[in-house]
Amino acid sequence: MEKLIYTFPASKTVKRPSHVGVVGSGDLEVLVEPNNSNETIVEIRTGITGFQDTWKKVIERFVSQHDISAFITVNDFGATPGVVSIRLAQAVEVSVNDSNDN
Amino acid sequence: MTQMITESLVESLARERAFQLLDKGSAYEILSPFDRLESPHLAAQNIVPQYDDGMIILKGTLNGKPTVVVSIEGNFQGGGIGEVSGAKLAGTLEKVLKECKEGNIIYPVIIYDTGGVRLQEANYGLLSIAEISAAIVELREYVPVVGIIPGKIGSFGGMSLTAGLCSALIMTREGRLGMNGPEVVEQEAGIRELDSRNKQLIWKMIGGAIRKEMGLADIVIEDDVPNFKNAILSIWNGEVELKHRTKNINQYLTLIKSLNIEEKISPEQATDILKGINNVENTDVPTPSELVNSRGRIWFNLLTENKQSISEIPSVLVADTEINGIKARIIAVVPNPESKFYRARKGEVGLLEGWTIAKYVRQAIEEDAHLNEKRLILPVVDVPSQAFGYHEELFGIYLSCSAAVDAYATARLAGHPIVAAVVGNAISGAFLSHGMQANRLISLNDDGVNVHVMSKKSAAIITQRTIEELDIAAKDVPSMAYDIQSFKKLGALYSLIDGVNAEEPSVDDSALVIEAIYSAYEDIKKENARDLSYRLKTEIAVSSGRVASIKVREMIEQQWK
Questions:
Q1: pTM summary value
Q2: Which residues does chain B have within 8 Å of residue A46's beta carbon, measured at their own beta carbons?
Q3: CB distance from B33 to chain A under 8 Å?
Q4: Is there a contact between A46 and B75 if contact means CB atoms under 8 Å apart?
Q5: Each residue's pLDDT tens digit, B347-394
Q6: I need a surface site. Which of A28, B70, B244, B534 has the fewest CB within 10 A?
Q7: Angle at A57 between CA A54 and CA A60, to 5 degrees
Q8: Which CATH architecture is the domain A2-96 placed in?
């Protein structure tokens, strides 16, 4: 298991916390929690070791598209970069929306 | 032709499933991922945990009635039950029970999607499943406990024993219900016994449709959310008769005794046989010509002073005796090399054994019903495993084990003190069925005493690790180890008896064990609790063995609204 942490400056706040995904084969869970520190902090735990470079690129691309001040935690069970990007985008979408569908 | 759009429950994740069932806007989550109460044992083994540990608890209403849905996430670690996930389910049921006792009826629904015990946490899974079972047996008396097996994984292992205890079961055709998964049966018994890749056969044996036809499930529905809701409501409002299968001991035992398995019975034949369960003529199980010695038999003989067994099944020994002047019923499972159930000849708990244990425990309950002082019940535990076989799965070995669990739990609740004496192997579903429902567990401190959930070879295959890797992991995670000293670290043992020769006990050895039994008996009497809470209160449990189990229960209490 490998632990990775990235921090980027951010300006916009999110409305509410969100949780998407599952730590199952080829998938991951993402938690987004609002913070007021004007930065995006991404903390990742992954069972697949040795892919720091790939993670860095995926996260950099994500923050370039989403300017959110939040604490994001990821538990990864071997998701591909494509799946990671989709899950992150999904989590942000839930976080910036007003209503809860449940 | 118009086509209705359906809303699938099967295709949803566990959390979505729970929200789908409850009235919109009514539900809140207890111990959500944001509480980050994850398994401490997975990270210790370099496995990525999940923040809800794969167990989702939602409280809300269904059709306006207060309801708790506990939903197992099958995509995370195969829905396996570890310490945290197990405590979340057990703790929720215990809380619902408490509310019901105070007159606040809350309806519990369990959504099963699980392979049973999580092998990476092994004995924590066993302890949790015993606690879940105990809670269901007690809760059923206040409110129907509804189990749903929607499908993807199904319900297997120890969790199938808890499914067997539910008041009613709802399944889809995709759902499966069995004790040993097909892959494990093939691994343990060989491909001639069961070819796990023959999916058509598997679903014909243990799929939802056939389980309903066999009378083992109550409702089978098409996968659409409104269907699930209607099925639950039909159970609540009494449209569906509750079958109490685990109490129908005579019918099931008579049927199992009558089976002829010299040639394989097909699933279709099995269904016909099970449909005729009320019209089976009694057959006797022949006494074997030769007795095989085992630790179970040795200690049974010693504790009963060589009394004749009153049991009609040679592989289950039962006798009433006195221990230090206290009336006691001793029960042991022993090998019968001539049993027609060829997968249960070495002392395993199989179809016959589970139902037989249930029969003689229930007999003691009935005989003592009018007494204030109920007799001590003493399971002598020396069980190598449950029986892994084709016919076992076909005829519902899970239910036979549920029946034994139910009987012991019912006896405990009725006020019978139960002390389980572990003298040999105490393994997996066999230990759950015979021993784990006891008020107190005592054990010999001996190399031949092992507590675990699966043979090392099978566990290695299922968790995709080598046996060496498993041994290394077991050093840091005592619940994964097989020896009794490691089991003691979980805090569930009342006493560990040193210096006893387990194979050839002397008179002194016997006296030591009787003293330990008596001490456990007195402790039960002193405490006067009829549940399994003792295991969470010992010094070891509080300081290290069950820290997470205790914390989960405290947090459920805090977040309950």
A1: 0.97
A2: 48
A3: yes
A4: no
A5: 999 999 999 999 999 999 999 999 999 999 999 999 999 999 999 999
A6: B244
A7: 150
A8: 2-Layer Sandwich (3.30)
